[in-house]
């Protein structure tokens, strides 16, 4: 079995050495009347995370709109997310460069900065970089100088970049001096929807969160501290913790990598959803919680402010402040009118971000890109 950490180091070194030979993509506009597109997504990984989930949602909805989609990855086809049977999945051996799995198509989507240069070097189709946010946007000061140089060069190569929020777009402009089109993430309203319920019949207050404690920016430890304090004050909290991996220290009811339908079910049975991230590019789970009828408590990170408004559809908490979480939970427990107001407004907010509203915008954007063809070296003037 391959050691992924060793592979990534070797891959970075190889690509860093090749980067000086790759120039920004040159494109020329052409007439394009093909109603159905062929879109190739190049995936750095296919493991369980919010970013991969968004890509797979794109893929499934694009197939429903009669477009052809190919996924290219080094890994086995994932089973944790139900991909449309029409999706073409190409597994590239680790002994080959990932982008060798790309064949003729109308456009290529590089889904992480690692893949941008290699996608462009294939000279097959226009490349669009899909930025979903990570440490290179929100913890740039902690990135090594060598990696900064590499990432910066990668981000200068594509003609087209799109991202999920104004916060992410602002970071792209600030750090990399790149403009980006904003196409929001969406909610699968077949899974995340509200149902009638009477939480007053329950003795316990059900609080749910989603995130891995291994990703410290998610702030799971602070939520756990707040739950402990609430239970010490006899508030009878039932804590549901949904996580993509096994936690080091379990607390409450832990659900490791549940199916999407189960997540929706758990959210519908919850009174309050807590998000304690120090940064997010969009924070889709908060919207999914709103769609399921939860009252939301969240930090004021760059991603969530795309749609969340304090005192309107959520209560906002200070960063790294478990006591503030406790205070906001108690406020919602004692103020039923406020809680219902947040739920009602949250439902309205979530409805604006249904995939049925988002995907047509994505398709229009892809059509714009597909009008271009690549100018290879011998054609440059």
Walk me through the structure:
With 381 residues, the chain is α/β, with parallel strands linked by helices. The protein folds into 2 domains: 4-186 and 357-379, Glycogen Phosphorylase B (Rossmann fold), CATH 3.40.50; 199-353, Glycogen Phosphorylase B (Rossmann fold, 3-Layer(aba) Sandwich). It contains 12 helices and 15 strands. Helix 7 crosses helix 10 (322-334) and helix 9 (284-291) packs across helix 11 (336-352).
Write a short abstract of this structure.
With 381 residues, the protein is α/β, with parallel strands linked by helices. The longest helix has 17 residues, at 336-352. It has helices spanning 4-19, 50-64, 116-121, 135-138, 145-155, 166-176, 220-232, 260-268, 284-291, 322-334, 336-352, 355-370, and strands spanning 27-29, 38-42, 68-73, 88-91, 107-110, 127-131, 160-163, 181-182, 205-210, 237-243, 253-256, 272-275, 295-299, 315-317, 372-374.
Largest sheet: 7 strands, parallel
Q: Which architecture of the largest domain would the CATH scheme give at its second level?
A: 3-Layer(aba) Sandwich
* Tally of discrete structural domains: 2
- CATH-wise, what's the superfamily of the largest domain? Glycogen Phosphorylase B
How far is it from the N-terminal to the C-terminal residue, by CA? Answer: 47 Å
Alpha-carbon Rg, integer: 22 Å
Tell the overall outline.
globular
Multimeric state: single chain
Task: Produce the secondary structure layout.
Blueprint: H1 4-19, E1 27-29, E2 38-42, H2 50-64, E3 68-73, E4 88-91, E5 107-110, H3 116-121, E6 127-131, H4 135-138, H5 145-155, E7 160-163, H6 166-176, E8 181-182, E9 205-210, H7 220-232, E10 237-243, E11 253-256, H8 260-268, E12 272-275, H9 284-291, E13 295-299, E14 315-317, H10 322-334, H11 336-352, H12 355-370, E15 372-374
Parallel strand pairs: 2-3, 2-5, 3-4, 5-6, 6-7, 7-8, 9-10, 9-12, 10-11, 12-13, 13-14
Antiparallel strand pairs: 1-15
């Amino acid at each position: 079995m391959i050691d992924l950490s060793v592979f990534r180091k070797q891959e970075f070194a190889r690509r860093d050495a090749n980067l000086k030979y790759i120039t920004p993509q040159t494109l020329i506009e052409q007439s394009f009347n093909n109603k159905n597109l062929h879109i190739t997504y190049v995936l750095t990984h296919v493991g369980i995370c919010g970013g991969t989930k968004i890509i797979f949602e794109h893929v499934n909805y694009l197939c429903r709109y009669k477009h052809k989609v190919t996924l290219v990855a080094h890994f086995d086809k994932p089973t944790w997310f139900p991909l449309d049977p029409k999706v073409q999945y190409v597994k590239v051996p680790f002994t080959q460069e990932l982008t060798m799995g790309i064949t003729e198509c109308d456009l290529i989507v590089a889904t992480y900065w690692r893949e941008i240069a290699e996608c462009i070097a294939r000279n097959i189709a226009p490349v669009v970089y899909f930025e979903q946010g990570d440490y290179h946007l929100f913890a740039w000061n902690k990135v090594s100088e060598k990696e900064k140089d590499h990432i910066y060069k990668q981000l200068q190569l594509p003609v087209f970049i799109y991202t999920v929020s104004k916060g992410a777009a602002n970071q792209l402009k600030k750090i990399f001096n790149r403009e980006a089109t904003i196409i929001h993430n969406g909610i699968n309203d077949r899974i995340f929807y509200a149902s009638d319920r009477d939480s007053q019949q329950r003795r316990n207050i059900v609080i749910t969160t989603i995130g891995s404690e291994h990703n410290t920016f998610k702030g799971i430890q602070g939520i756990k501290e707040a739950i402990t304090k609430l239970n010490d004050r006899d508030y009878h909290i039932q804590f549901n913790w949904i996580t993509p991996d096994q936690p080091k220290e379990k607390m409450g009811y832990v659900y490791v990598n549940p199916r999407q339908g189960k997540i929706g079910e758990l959210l519908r049975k919850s009174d309050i959803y807590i998000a304690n991230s120090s940064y997010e590019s969009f924070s889709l789970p908060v919207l999914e919680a709103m769609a399921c009828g939860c009252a939301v408590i969240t930090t004021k990170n760059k991603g969530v402010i795309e749609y969340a408004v304090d005192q309107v559809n959520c209560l906002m908490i200070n960063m790294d402040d478990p006591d503030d979480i406790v205070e906001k939970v108690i406020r919602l427990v004692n103020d039923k009118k406020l809680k219902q107001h947040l739920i009602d407004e949250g439902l309205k907010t979530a409805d604006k971000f249904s995939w049925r509203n988002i995907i047509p915008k994505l398709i229009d954007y892809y059509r714009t890109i597909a009008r271009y063809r690549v100018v290879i070296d011998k054609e440059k003037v």
